[in-house]
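Problem: given the chain below (259 residues), write out its structure.
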Amino acid sequence: MSTDNFDGEQLEPPENPPIFNLPRIVIIIFACFVFVHLVRTFASKELDDWLILNFAFTPARLSPPPELAGLVFPGGFLGDIWTFFTHALLHADWEHLGFNSVWMFVFGTVVARRISAVQFILFSIYTAGFGAVAFYLFNFGSFTFLIGASGAISGMMGGAIRLMYSVEGGMANLRRHDFKDVKLLPLVQIVQNKSAMMFVFVWMVLNIIFGVTGFGAGDSVSSIAWEAHLGGFIAGFVLFGFFDPGRNTKSIFSRFRRR
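Solution.
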């Protein structure tokens, strides 16, 4: 059975390639995760502490608690900015890295099959930043470190939902190989889609459960940063259209539009 696209044309059903037939940019980002964690694994404690202080995000950089009022973080003002994004390259342990990578393989692949590699990187940076902003707002003045790519990956999930549920199949469209001709479902329509909203509801419930129990966060941290998940997801869900090259949107990166 064929499916109408947004121009009324008939789309042939996907050939259902393997779900982990990964786009190159997803593999490259995964390799970066592995490389950084290998460096941390074999680094001295002093070097590992230096990496955390320089590249992990903590609200104490911008709103230090009284007991840390005189503490100067490495990187200065620029470090205050780049840690909003660089925290995504660090992971607590191999379990944490693997858990995040699997989610990226699933939902990042959907997004990467829609947009260019440049757009995918920019979208990942943007959602990681929003994840850090949400973490900051919920943990104002805390000397707690945020590490991991889950904010960015939650943003990928938010963008992927608007593609997968725009055609018949919903989550089954994870196996679709080509998303270039799929309509990006407008927000007004996606919130009226019961299946999509049920998926979002279940994700939020699981996010709260994982945040409380710490499952998937690794042994070296006590809980998952559900705030970063929520911030990244909302950013990706609401504003993915600004990165989208589809014919039904006006992308701010239109010069990268696929022909």
